[in-house]
Amino acid sequence: MTEVDPTKPQESAFHGHSVPLVQAKPAHQALFPYFLVALGTLLVVGIAGYWWMNSTMKAELDAKKLDFALEQQDKVHKLAMDAERQKAEREKDQLRLEAEKALEEERRAQHKAQYAKLAQVVEQAQKQLDAFEAARRERDELLAANGREIAARDELLTKYEIIERQHPAPQFETGAVRALLATAATRSATLSLQDGVPAAPSPELEQSVGTALAETTAALKSQTASNQAMTALAAEAVEDGVPAADVDIAEALLLRVRRADQDRLKVIAEAEERGRQEAKRQIDEVAAREAEENTKIEVDATTRAFDQQQETIKRLHDQREAAQKAKDEELVRILNAQLEKEIAELRGQAGLAEAEVKVAEAAASAKKSEKELEAERIAAETEKNRLREKAKSREVATALAPFIGKGYWQPGRAQPDRDAAGISLTAIKAEGALDPSPTGMRQLYHIGANPKNDRPGGWSKDDRMVGKPLEAWLKNKPGARDTARKAQDLLLELGDVLVEVGLLSP
User: Fold this and answer.
1) Counting C-beta atoms within 10 Å of the first and last residue's C-beta, which end of the chain has fewer, N or C?
2) pLDDT tens-digit profile of 367-404?
3) Are 322 and 361 members of one domain?
4) Helices then strands, each counted (H, E), the chain
5) Is the pTM of this model over 0.70?
């Protein structure tokens, strides 16, 4: 741009005229308005931009604040829900604990009541057992004081045996029952005092204690009745004034058994002698009987002919009736003639035949009786020899080992025998062990497995089930039951023979 000298007037050539011009300003003064406009524009733009940028950031900030507030609100809500849930769970757990505690208290009370009831039953059974043992001691003292007076008379001794059979000894060991009751009482007392919940009494324990109470009660009742009868028997013995015997009741009974065995052997010997004499008589009559046998054969032939002739007559009668129905007079006449002939012959022979038949039948009957007697004697002797051989067999030795072995203990006796021998057959019978019943089988097993039985080959003591009902023994011990049944069958079959050969005591 041309700078204008401010000191000189400016002229303009316009159509040859000189026209004075306005004096131009400096450049920076000429651009100042533009600067101001530009500055204002920038200011406006800046302010607008500031406000625009400020509005966006504020919105974002507000949005973030809102999101943060919502997030915090969600967290607070979640924490509140968690707190409510935890509170509900704690309340639920508390209710469960309270219910379990109440149930535990109920079980504890129930089980303690069961043990209290069991303890009561045990106490009753112990009292009954004490009373039974006292009654047994009373009986023993009574027999010790009056046994020889009773043994002095056979009729009183018989009454004593009847009383013993009516009131047999109980089928349990008092020591074992007392140990069972003591164990049950200790367990009941211990568990009923525990703080925790004690286990309920087992059904087996309750059943055992109940069985013990029933058995001891029955034994006490039976022993009391026996003592009353024994007291009356002792009074009768004292009143009779008969001098006391030299032996007690047990020895007197043993002597009675021995005398009975001697009498039995004597009867057997006499019967054998009579059998020998009868056999000799029969042998002497063999010839006569053979002749009678021949006669019988002839009579039998005559009888058969007689029967055949009767059949012929019957047949002719039938034919005549048929001919009469057919109106055949000639055939009727012929048949009538034959009938008259047959009947005449039959009448002529009837008397002789009837007499011969009677004689032959009588001879045959006598011969049959004699033969039967001889056969019975021979069969009896054969059977006895067979039983003797069987009594010595390995089968019998195995099945009856607890009875035929050598030992000192005898059932039903307070003191052992002086000499070792087999068990007394009389003692076995007195215990009811040969009664063919479940009770007899169990009693026999009780003898064979008794801990006091000192003979080798004793049966299992654990299978006795002392204090258990008979039904439980039959159900739970089939092996013991079969063992007792086999032994009982052999003793019933071979008892007397085993005594005869010395394997059992009398």
Assistant:
1) N
2) 545 556 666 677 777 778 888 888 888 888 888 889 98
3) yes
4) 13, 2
5) no
